[in-house]
């Protein structure tokens, strides 16, 4: 790999890490299409590099988010059960669906989620009354001088979404945050910042479930994966900090636009 | 959530943060050295260490929760750890 290529891959990783950490999605959903379509990297090598980079993004942003008390650990642990089972199931089911069907289902799901997020972006999930009991899987969130409380709603839906997110990760080599964050925020009562931080905390584990298989197959091209991961590391540290400063509503709209664009693009890929 | 429970969870979060920072720090140095010096050995260990960092994180959480005698979440965390170890086992066996 030439120095020129290394710099291009570093910058590609940095861009996906930045957006990924802001939204708690890891960035694999941008990285795989970018590496394959723009740089002609073979799909398996792109997926493997993406998984390594997702781990880097998740780990780096989690150190920032843990410090800020944004990660809901109990919720993350409970949902990790579903994502890891989903990851395993996704890997096994990969042979049952054609990639066209996969792209179409995935694209349609994302675009629908994006549209729903836009429609519900004005709703706030937090309660300013701190005497309200957040429950075992809810929590508290500090924003400026105000402490808010949020309660988890529709746990079965959160578990279902995590199962699907894990399956998608196993099938397509993503972190799966692009499914979890919108569902947790839009339907389960989790504030967008907490949803993003908790998702980022989980996706490293989701990616770690399948990355060793890719590594042993020789799909991890070391210079490529390293350059992308280093870029993602730098980008995600900035992204996690930036996510704090941006208004919650702006973050939701940004996420919705990302969902719509990626969803439509993936659906078109299938046609 | 009582104050005591919140404090314990906070301490566990500090330990997790430390594990993540160490894993990330060492792998970053290895990846940088590997890319600059063109050493595949440094790159291989850097990538492997990065891949193992989330596994170490889950192991830390499992032990931390067991020490706190929070058996429900210890079991939950142990289950996730078992899935990850199964993934590594499948990788090693190939």
Question: Can you put this structure into words, describing what you see?
Answer:
- The complex is a heterodimer of chains A (271) and B (94).
- Chain A is mainly alpha-helical.
- Helices cover 74% and strands 4% of the residues of chain A.
- Chain A has ten helices and two strands, in the order H-H-H-H-H-E-E-H-H-H-H-H.
- Chain A has helices at residues 3-23, 28-38, 43-67, 73-93, 99-119, 155-172, 177-186, 192-217, 222-245, 248-270, and strands at 139-143, 146-150.
- In chain A, strand 1 (139-143) and strand 2 form a beta hairpin.
- In chain A, helix 3 runs parallel beside helix 9 and helix 5 packs antiparallel against helix 10.
- The longest helix of chain A has 26 residues, at 192-217.
- The radius of gyration of chain B is 16 Å and the shape is flat.
- Chain B is mainly alpha-helical.
- The interface between A and B is large, with 44 and 44 residues.
Blueprint of the fold:
The complex is a heterodimer of chains A (271) and B (94).
Chain A: H1 3-23, H2 28-38, H3 43-67, H4 73-93, H5 99-119, E1 139-143, E2 146-150, H6 155-172, H7 177-186, H8 192-217, H9 222-245, H10 248-270
Antiparallel strand pairs in A: 1-2
Helix pairs in contact in A: 1-2, 1-3, 1-9, 2-3, 3-8, 3-9, 4-6, 4-8, 5-7, 5-10, 6-7, 7-8
Chain B: H1 3-37, H2 40-67, H3 71-93
Helix pairs in contact in B: 1-2, 2-3
